[in-house]
From TrEMBL:
InterPro entries: DPNP (IPR006239), Inositol_monoP_metal-BS (IPR020583), Inositol_monoP_superfamily (IPR051090), Inositol_monophosphatase-like (IPR000760), Inositol_monophosphatase_CS (IPR020550). CDD domains: PAP_phosphatase. PANTHER family: 3'(2'),5'-BISPHOSPHATE NUCLEOTIDASE (PTHR43200:SF6), PHOSPHATASE (PTHR43200). This is 3'(2'),5'-bisphosphate nucleotidase.
């Protein structure tokens, strides 16, 4: 059984990936804005969120959306507004006005919470990776009563086969609660079932983490890896592509240790965490608590993120406990 939500999510993410690829090839200086938290946002992020919002509305007129972006920067800049409107219309072959595009983006201001159904969109996750020509992902989740039940990741720059940089690139990851996880390569209609790695010896494991050391402590993860006898170098890539590579078995551990006080956004983890779980893995925070998507736009009940293939999960959690004890950090 394939739900209507799943079909629509795939359509929306594929169209959003198309606009991101288009933007990357034509992005010029001045089309990137630095947000209050000093992170970048590009015309690609705005166009992608507009396209997802418009596509969801076509099938679910009353949809609710928790989205990373809003139209403030477009209201303040005519050139950004025009570029984004042009990009959306050329990708969808439509003729929306600038106001309609901004309204579509601002559907993403929903607060989320523990009741009802809503979507969660990160229109470009890994904007820094996107700007570098590295990994990024369009990430769409669907939440029912505070629990993620559907996740689709679109990863335009990710190799389809393992981490083979020379082979074809661009794939979707799809997870639906109770129905497993799948990979669909761009240009194909076949959903290939995926499963986490069966490696049971942490010494043979590979781990992945943020490319940006400011998003996750590379120092802490190196100590944990040492304790687990992991000898292979970490896979450092941007975005929820990390969840994708755990789900299909290219790595066994994803470690994320943000700086003190940082609270994760739901859109940075909703789709990817469900895909790993549906592929047989375990996802929790650095204290071992499940990620709680019922708290609004942020994961206020959690700190950090750990995803594993399940088999070596308790070894990983034990290593985390001892490293943070050594560093005198209190673990709950
Ligand atoms: N100081 C920080 N610590 C942890 N995550 C951060 C951060 N600053 C930004 N982020 C988040 O990290 C995301 C990218 O994750 P990763 O490091 O895995 O690529 C960003 O998503 P966007 O690129 O959508 O803004 C952003 O939400
Ligand atoms: Mg951002
Ligand atoms: Mg993000
Ligand atoms: Mg983003």
């Amino acid at each position: 059984m394939v739900s209507k939500e799943r079909e629509v999510a795939i359509e929306a993410v594929l169209k959003a990936c198309k606009v991101c690829q288009k933007v990357f090839n034509t992005l010029v200086k001045g089309e990137t804005v630095i947000k209050a938290d000093e992170s970048p946002v590009t015309i690609g992020d705005f166009a992608s969120q507009a396209i997802v919002s418009i596509t969801l509305k076509k099938y679910f007129p009353d949809f609710k959306l928790v989205g990373e972006e809003n139209s403030q920067a477009l209201k303040e800049s005519e050139s950004l507004r025009k570029r984004v409107t042009g990009l959306v219309n050329s990708t969808l072959e439509t003729n929306y006005s600038e106001e309609e595009i901004m309204k579509a983006i601002d559907r993403g201001t929903f607060e989320g919470g523990s009741t009802g159904n809503f979507w969660v969109i990160d229109p470009i996750d890994g904007t820094k990776g996107f700007l570098r020509g590295g990994q990024y992902a369009v990430c769409l989740g669907y939440t029912v009563n505070g629990e993620v039940t559907l996740g689709v990741l679109g990863c335009p720059n990710l190799p389809c086969n393992d981490m083979d940089e020379d082979g074809p690139k661009g794939c979707l990851f799809i997870g639906e609660k109770g129905y497993g996880a799948f990979q669909r390569n761009f240009g194909s209609e076949e959903d290939i079932p995926i499963h986490v790695s069966s490696i049971d010896d942490s010494a043979k494991a590979k781990f992945c983490e943020s490319f940006e050391a400011g998003h996750s402590s590379h120092k802490d993860s190196a100590e944990i890896a040492k304790l687990l006898n992991i000898s292979l170098p970490p896979i450092r890539i941007d975005s929820q592509c990390k969840y994708g590579i755990i789900a299909r078995g290219n790595a066994q551990v994803y470690l994320r240790f943000p700086r003190e006080g940082y609270i994760e956004n739901t859109w940075d983890h909703a789709a990817g965490s469900l895909i790993v779980k549906e592929a047989g893995g375990i996802v929790c925070d650095m204290f071992g608590k499940p990620l709680d998507f019922s708290q609004g736009r942020k994961l206020s009940n959690n700190k950090g993120v750990i995803a594993t293939n399940g088999i070596i999960h308790s070894q990983v959690m034990n290593a985390i406990k001892s490293v943070f004890k050594l560093n005198n950090v209190l673990l709950g």
